[in-house]
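Backbone-to-sequence.
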């Protein structure tokens, strides 16, 4: 059975050429991430970093940025193109960092290939690696109901903000902002900003 990583590996060069730079990012999305990055002082994680352009962008705020992705070709490119950031081949369902390692986790469309029965895995990992009071920024495909759609690389899921926010809160993260943006050229976009409740933070072992 083909995995999402396999599908991206076959199109890694094409994806990087088309979408692997901040020039391809919508100004509203950049503003959202920049606003929260400016409030952050500790290490940050780009979970599902792809070619690494967001990870590199976070270093422009003076932050120590780590990027992980399951597609080795993306990580090879990112290490070569953006030596100021740290990159590892890793799964967002099993993040290879200790509890409470990061003050900000950026998950920009990295969970769209998770099904409604598996979305809890990365959300729980994001909560685990966030320090108390840390923030998650989650970009996703917005839709009126939870259902699959034909993504250009491999099948993905759209979510209503209310349902994805509920799943995020179930992981122990308090939703503090939701954003939606429509475009005639692209699928509707959504973003959720959530914060780890210090009282729900996992213990710092591991």
């Amino acid at each position: 059975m083909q995995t999402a990583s396999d599908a991206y590996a076959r199109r890694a060069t094409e994806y990087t050429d088309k979408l692997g730079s901040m020039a391809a990012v919508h100004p509203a999305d950049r503003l959202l991430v920049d606003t929260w990055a400016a409030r952050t002082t500790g290490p940050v994680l780009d979970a599902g970093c792809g070619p690494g352009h967001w990870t590199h962008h976070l270093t422009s705020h003076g932050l120590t940025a780590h990027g992980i992705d399951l597609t080795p070709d993306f990580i090879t490119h990112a290490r070569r193109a953006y030596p100021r950031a740290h990159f590892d081949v890793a799964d967002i369902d099993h993040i290879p960092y200790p509890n409470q390692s990061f003050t900000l986790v950026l998950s920009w469309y990295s969970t769209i290939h998770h099904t409604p029965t598996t979305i809890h895995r990365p959300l729980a990992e994001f909560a685990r690696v966030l320090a108390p009071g840390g923030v998650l920024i989650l970009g996703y495909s917005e839709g009126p109901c939870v259902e699959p759609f034909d993504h250009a690389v491999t099948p993905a899921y759209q979510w209503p903000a209310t349902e994805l926010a509920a799943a995020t809160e179930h992981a122990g993260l308090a939703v503090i902002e939701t954003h939606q943006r429509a475009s005639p050229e692209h699928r509707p976009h959504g973003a959720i900003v959530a914060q780890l409740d210090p009282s729900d933070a996992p213990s710092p072992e591991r």
